Amino acid sequence: MKLTGAQIIWEILLQQGTEVVFGYPGGAILPTYDALVDYQDRIRHVLVRHEENAALAADAYFRATGKVGVCMATSGPGALNLVTGLANAMMDSSAVVAITGQVASHLVGTDAFQETDVTGVTLPITKHNYLVMSVEELPQALTEAFYIARSGRPGPVLVDICKDAQQKMTDYTPISEVKLRGYRAIKPFPQNIPLLLQRAKELIDQARRPIILAGQGIKHANAHEEFRQFVEKSGIPVATTLLGIGVLSEEHPLNLRMMGMHGEAYVNQAIANADLLIALGMRFDDRVTGNLKTYAKNARVIHVDVDPAEINKNVPADVGIIANLRDVLQQLTPMIEKRTYPHWLEQIAEWRKDTLSHDIMQMPLPEDMLIAPQVMRLIWEATGGNCTICTDVGQHQMWETQYFHHTRKNQLITSGGLGTMGFALPAAIGTKFGRPDEEVWAIAGDGGFQMSIPELATVVQEGLNIKIAIINNNFLGMVRQWQELMHNRRYSAVEMWTPDFVKLAEAYGICGLRANNVKSAREAIATARAHNGPVLIEFVVEKEMNVFPMIQPGKSLNEMTRRPIQPAALGGGFDFLDAQK
Amino acid sequence: MLIDRIEAQKNPTKHTLVAIVENKPGVLNRVASLMRRRNFNIESLAVGTTEDPTVSRMTIVIDASKTNAALVERNLYKLINVIDVQDLSEVPSVVRELALIKVRTEDAKHRGEIKQIADMFQSRVVDVSLNSLIIEVTGEENKVDSMLKVLAEYGILEVVRTGRIAMARG
Question: Which CATH number does the domain housing residue B47 bear?
């Protein structure tokens, strides 16, 4: 079958099961957009308002569906705008295929109009990339890109295609099997897995204060059920990473919930005192460990990951297993004994009690004010937890993890490793296409939301029923918190003027609401949920409030900064700022 | 004898990795980018063709006192174009480096002395001019280092070294 390169692109997307492409046209990708006219009945193209959001939406689409997200842009500025989104996908291991136009092959290297060495620029932030100079190379490269993106540890793959390679014709036969010389989804390292599992079992048998550290790898291996069985048989409590939220219900009695910099105090206390860490599909990020020198220093470590380069990277493993988590759990669970750890769990319950005494939601609050944790609780209560939440980056993101209990699988979509502000709205767009029947909430701060305002137009144009919550404290809250706690409150470039968000929403034809106390917040959420269409709610919250507890950078897990038990001066000057050890 | 002793010396902090990679555009860039991005310290990197025209062979020397060689190996494996990685530090192997050294010669007496030194190092004089000689030397880095030390007495004008290449014995 003779087809143009542009037609081949769409044929391969169809073959790979692509249903939606997030993109933005331009000169060097024009032939592909021309061919799209004949394919738009089979593939939906979503016109974003900035290419970065195409990449972020594709990333979120993958997280919502497990299917490769696809984004598209033209050469030069178009492709460069994808960069932050691709880096986000790389850090959080999201399978994304980015297709970019490149100047015609005879112009490559001449500084032609809108030419950029995109494969050079994206080399360190993609799992792999391709520069396709001729139409003959195209089928192989693009098919491989999908395989590489979704296999092993998922990641983004960029395919940069010269304009003439899109225009020229070639004989096309679909490639059914990808054969790569070097790449294997899991590299066969010389490991004696049965022996390693036996050693892991022995460590588990000996442990008196074990804890499981659960990461996103469990989700990528689709091993939720195997994981639950392992947890229940072993009787070992679980702490999750930010991206590991949702691998086990947060209402499960053994789920202690999120660990790390803003994890609840008792979770980090449990890790600091553990004698065995069972790390599953997580990578000991610095936000999780704090100071590595003192991190869980009495604990033996079992580390299972699909990526060989993660074992012994930050925390040395006594038993390191490079394998698919599902396979490992299926083999390990039958080997271990059914146990309970009453003393250990009692101790953790004790710490938990202490944590609750520091909880702001346990403290009396004036009725005429609103704090962000209340907003998270109200959304949780109103939806019964039956929704997907896309958060941005910053204080609200951490409060969401603390005050919204995720009971369903993969309910939270958030930017973890890269911490990309402006993620929430494009992520909600990608999520809504992946889960059209789901209630989708984008929760963003006033800073992050102002980075993605243009996508409101996409929401309207695509007719997406997305609920948007803006947590407005007129500050870049997390940066302000760091300046307060670590820079003696020398506020520098953190105060933010914001537009009238309600009028802004109305300008886009979106229902806009505002709330500034619990009562109006509850009503606004109810109104938003009843409305069949997009709604934006501005929650005007307490300006200077801090996320506690906090492990400051470089500090150890047990050096948390806690919230004072009694906030100073309730009433007149409500002050959360007195951070004490 | 001198040379044998130098050959036998092994520098324990240096780790030799050999990566067999697909011979495609940009592969060297990918390997170099990985080293920089991960903050790996490399001593040398030598690339060349092999018996199979579709693959190239890279010999990477790592300062193991600064960089964990096992992590380098595992990260190399993550590159799609890397077919195989061998750690030659753990197996008996032949290790060589080639250097060209241009030495100042003031008179015929110097020339004679330098020629003698070259012979002792089992190396060759490959170019002669009125005021200089070029010597070609192959061997392990220590041998090249020693030779440079000796020749420094005469005045070294220019040096180029290839970096280590290596192959497992047997």
Answer: 3.30.70.260
Which residues, other chains included, contact B129 with Cβ-Cβ below 8 Å and sequence gap of 6+?
none
Same domain, A467 and A422: yes
Query: Which of B77, B80, B83 is facing A128, going by the closest CB pair?
Result: B80
Encode A271-299: b = buried (16+ Cβ within 10 Å), e = exposed. bbbbbbbbbbbbbbbebbbbeeeebbeeb
Interface residue ranges in chain B relative to chain A, Cβ cutoff 8 Å: 21-22, 25-26, 29-30, 33, 37, 68, 70-71, 74-75, 77-84
For chain A, give the mean pLDDT.
95
Q: What is the pLDDT of residue A397?
A: 98
Q: Which residues are within 8 A (CB) of A391 and not within 5 positions of it... i.e. 6 or more apart? A: A397, A400, A412, A413, A414, A423, A424, A442, A443, A444
Whether A182 and B22 lie within 8 Å, measured CB to CB: yes
Domain span including residue A252: 193-352
> Is A361 an active-site residue?
no
- Whether A51 sits among the annotated catalytic residues: the reply is yes
Residue A365 pLDDT level (bands cut at 50, 70, 90): confident
Q: How far apart are CA B146 and CA B151, in angstroms?
A: 9
Residue A576: what are its φ and ψ, rounded to 5°?
-100, 5
Number of domains observed in the structure of chain A: 3
Q: Tell me how far apart the alpha carbons of residues B43 and B68 are, in angstroms, rounded to a whole number.
A: 13
Q: What is the CATH number of the domain that holds B122?
A: 3.30.70.1150
> What is each CA distance from A541 to A185, A370, A471, A514, A565, in whole angstroms?
47, 5, 7, 11, 21
Contact of A183 with chain B, judged by CB distance below 8 Å, is answered with yes
What is the pLDDT at residue A190?
Answer: 78
Mean pLDDT of A401-429: 97
- The predicted pLDDT at position B65 comes to 85
Tell if the CB–CB gap between B21 and A182 is shorter than 8 Å. Answer: yes
A-B interface: how many C-beta pairs under 8 angstroms?
41
The verdict on A293 touching B (C-beta cutoff 8 Å) is: no
**Unique residue bearing structure tokens 């001066």:** A569
Which ipTM score applies to this complex?
0.89
Q: How far apart are CA A476 and CA A394, in angstroms?
A: 8
Confidence tier at B11 by pLDDT (50, 70, 90): low
* Residues B132 and B102: beta-carbon distance below 8 Å: yes
Nearest to B71 among A120, A123, A309 (CB): A309
Statement to judge: residues A393 and A499 lie in one domain: yes
Cα separation of A24 and A71, whole Å? Answer: 9
Amino acid identity at A18: T
Radius of gyration of chain B (CA): 18
Residue A196, classed as helix, strand or coil, is helix
pLDDT band for B7, please (50, 70, 90 cuts): very low
Whether residue B10 is predicted with pLDDT greater than 60 in this model: the reply is no
pLDDT tens digit string along A59-79? 999 999 999 999 999 999 999
Asked if pLDDT for residue A395 goes beyond 60, the answer is yes
Residue ranges of E strands in A346-456: 388-391, 412-413, 440-445
Q: Could you give the percent of chain A with pLDDT greater than 90? A: 91
Residues 6+ apart with CB under 8 A from B137: B98, B99, B101, B118, B121, B123, B143, B144, B147
Q: Do residues B84 and B6 both lie within one domain?
A: yes
pLDDT digits (tens, 9 = 90+) for B70-93: 899 999 999 999 999 999 988 999
Concerning whether A168 is annotated as a catalytic residue, the answer is: no
CA distance A263 to A551: 9
Residues A66 and A39 in one domain: yes
